[in-house]
Description:
Layout: H1 2-30, H2 39-44, H3 50-70, H4 77-95, E1 99-102, E2 108-113, E3 120-127, H5 134-140, E4 149-150, H6 152-178
Helix pairs in contact: 1-3, 1-4, 1-6, 3-6, 4-6
Amino acid sequence: MQKFFWLNILIIFLSWLTILVVLLALITQSHNIRLLVLQDLYNTIDTSGVIIRSILMFLMAISVGFAILHFRNKANSSQSIKWGMITAVIGLPIGLLVFYAHSCCESLVLFNLGFPLSWLRSLSKESNRLPLPEFQFLIQNLGNMYQWYIDLYSLLVDFFFWYCAGIVIYLLKVQESFIPSAKEE
């Protein structure tokens, strides 16, 4: 059981680290500073409300870390890993329902799909303005878009987010079983 506990701690630590890298990229870019090691992230991370989403993800990872340490003796680590993985596998495709379209000047409309970070992207063949509302256009032209692109770093960050969400769900379930109900008293 102890090895599963440390696996959870490792995944949560990697979650913190990946989110901190996103925040570092956003902060340096906002100050017109470009770090060579983050060069690929400057162009791939969507910037629509990403600071708020990154802070939300970081707070989630910190709270999960403290909760795992608090429930270390009460919670089954292998069960928490199972809940984290199942939630991540379910959460990633559900997160694709969150999307937005972006265009500038006379450029093609870029669709960003995914939550909390968009990890699936494509350009429409329409420039600047869509003839239909975004959702309707996306549904009708799903196969008619330019090649879909998966941003692996954002996908990894989203996986960690949904994994931590699964651990929260599991720990809430575990906590409920350790709180005496009014009937028992």
